[in-house]
Here is the input.
Amino acid sequence: MIKVSVFYPNEEGKRFDMDYYVNKHMPMIRQMLGTACKCVDAEQGLGGLSPGTPATYIAICHLYFESIESFQTAFGLHGQAIMADMPNYTNIQPTIQISEVKI
Here is the structure.
């Protein structure tokens, strides 16, 4: 199983519209990626380890695929449209990591 993680850093002066992200962007991704995407989850950062510290990431998204090839095929077809929607919910440059799920 492959996990594609998208991390949106919690940066001062940046914006992130969680309502748009959850109710518009994520359903669009699910529709575009179709059955290649096995599962999606989106998280909103609440805080750091110590009480009162800010979250490192304002939002994190995980998308799961059977293989790197299935991700590359699905994202290759729709990646530009997915990325073009980003200004509708954020001005943050995300960090993306592709991982192999071990457990």
Strands lie at 2-9, 37-44, 57-65, 95-100. The mean pLDDT is 97. Residues 10 and 57 are 5 Å apart (CA to CA).
